[in-house]
Design brief:
The chain has one domain. Helix 1 packs antiparallel against helix 3 and helix 3 packs across helix 9. The C terminus is likely disordered. The protein is an all-alpha fold. It has a two-stranded antiparallel ribbon with strand order 1-2.
Length: 307
């Protein structure tokens, strides 16, 4: 089941990243005044390419649930970022450019990190610490995701705020999906439906702030931060709401820890390359150092991420 969970996590990540690549193209074509407003999503829902991207992302949701049900959270969560490899391949085909040394180094680090995580993964499933701990972690992530909306139109209303808020929101949806998968496995269907509702509401807000971030900033700023935060923040918070058993992990979990660090470095290295940033932003000139490299206000242009 562990192997099946790993495969499901990787495939879901591929679908999420393909979907967000299509959505980002349309996001940068929307009026800036729609930023951090529900009208932004209403506008995007009338754009065929964006809806196509949304549909592709939805195909990854059941696979993500299966991954969380079949493999430990600390293993599945980092895998939700490996879809960046697909974005690199798409960029190569559309832009007609060979990957840079930085991109190839990032790919190598991600593959090595995945291998170490799979090798050092604990075989036993994790368990919840209790209602208070779970709700506390979720509440913190949800509140953090709402900060961009609270600051809308004020001094702190920046692209960076939107990026971090969106990343925290998607981190919360990943945690909610994990909790839902566990509740389904234990037969607590009412609680599972409740977590699904939470994931839907928080995910909507995270989508609004994420599309707003892509309106305001170049993908070279948005992608590394968003991917890293929404992927590894839940891993850092895991000890607060889950009890993981590392008794049967290889070498007392050292390969797992090293794999997480190696993969994080690889994600940042890859996400900062012009190939990935250009295809996600939907601005070919950005990948070649053209005027789009700084992010054009209101011009055309997910990260799960996770995923």
């Amino acid at each position: 089941m562990l192997a099946a969970g790993l495969i499901a996590g990787i495939v879901s990540s591929v679908l999420f990243n393909l979907g967000i690549a299509l959505q980002a193209i349309e996001a940068r074509r929307t009026p800036r005044e729609e930023g951090l407003r529900a009208s932004l999503i209403w506008d995007l829902l009338h754009r065929r390419l964006w809806v196509t991207g949304l549909g592709i992302e939805w195909l990854g949701v059941p696979l993500e649930i299966l991954a969380f049900a079949w493999a430990p959270f600390v293993v599945v969560q980092p895998l939700l970022a490996c879809g960046l490899l697909v974005l690199l391949a798409v960029a190569r085909r559309l832009l007609g450019e060979m990957p840079s040394r930085g991109a190839l180094a990032g790919v190598a680090l991600i593959i090595a990190g995945i291998g170490l995580i799979a090798w050092g993964a604990p075989g036993e499933q994790d368990t919840h610490r209790g209602a208070a701990a779970v709700i506390g972690v979720m509440a913190g992530l949800v509140l953090a995701s709402l900060v961009p909306f609270a600051l809308r139109g004020r001094r702190g209303d920046t692209a960076m705020t939107a990026v971090l808020g969106s990343a925290c929101g998607f981190a919360a949806t990943n945690v909610a999906m994990k909790l839902m998968a566990d509740d389904i496995g234990s037969g607590h269907l009412v609680q599972a439906v409740a977590w699904l509702a939470v994931a839907g509401v928080v995910g909507f807000g995270a989508t609004v702030s994420g599309m707003t971030a892509l309106q305001r900033a170049a993908a070279t700023t948005v992608i590394p931060i968003s991917t890293a935060v929404q992927t590894f923040l839940p891993v850092a918070l895991e000890p607060l709401f889950l009890e993981e058993s590392f008794r049967d992990a290889s070498l007392e979990g050292i390969p797992l820890l090293v794999g997480l660090v190696v993969m994080l470095v690889g994600i940042v290295a890859l996400a900062r390359t012009r190939h990935v940033s250009a295809i996600v932003a939907g601005v070919p000139g950005e990948g070649r150092g053209g005027p789009g490299s700084r992010g054009r206000p209101g011009a055309g242009g997910a990260v799960p991420s996770a995923p």
